[in-house]
Design goal:
It is built from 4 helices and 8 strands; from the N terminus they run βααββββαβαββ. It is an alpha+beta fold and about 150 residues long. It has one domain: Aminopeptidase, CATH 3.40.630.30. Strands 1, 2, 3, 4, 5, 6, 7 and 8 form an 8-stranded mixed beta sheet that branches. A hairpin with a 4-residue loop joins strand 3 and strand 4.
């Protein structure tokens, strides 16, 4: 039996924006800059709840940089669901969602310490396009990865 994840668009309202901000705080507690509820509510990012069998297991999203280029936001698999292959599936799901709306290239910026997601992206055909030392703050290096969608 293969795993499947359902993406459900997150409606932009204060309650959901606060929930997403809190999820970022919980799962990226080492990161110096995290989006606030206000940042989330006013951004052009389309967030999606990720569900498996009606159980919410994480969140992902994208924002359009141009009509044909999208950047994914930090994908988060809730701690209790990690190690089950959901990160790989969710990464593919958001890529497929972008492709379905006409995106030709997708990119992702990933913290250098997030080896599992870097590995997933490389296996899915992404190429490392850049390295950004001290990108958000000292010690917070990031890689830019990109993929042409065919």
């Amino acid at each position: 039996m293969s795993l499947s994840i359902q993406l459900v668009p997150v409606e932009k309202n204060l309650e959901n924006s606060e929930a997403i901000a809190n999820i970022h705080k919980e799962h990226y507690d080492r990161v110096p800059y995290l989006p606030s509820a206000e940042d989330i509510q006013t951004s052009k990012t389309q967030y999606f709840w990720a569900y498996v069998n009606e159980e919410r297991i994480g969140i992902t999203g994208y924002y359009l940089k141009t009509k044909t280029l999208a950047e994914t936001v930090k994908t988060i698999i809730f701690k209790e669901y990690r190690g089950k292959g959901y990160g790989k599936i969710l990464s593919q799901e958001i890529e497929d969602k972008c492709k379905s709306i006409g995106i030709k290239k997708i990119m992702s910026t990933i913290y250098s310490f997030n080896i599992p997601m870097i590995s997933i992206k490389l296996k899915q055909g992404y190429m490392i396009e850049g390295f950004h030392p001290d990108h958000e703050a000292p010690g917070f290096d990031e890689y830019s990865l990109g993929k042409i969608l065919k």
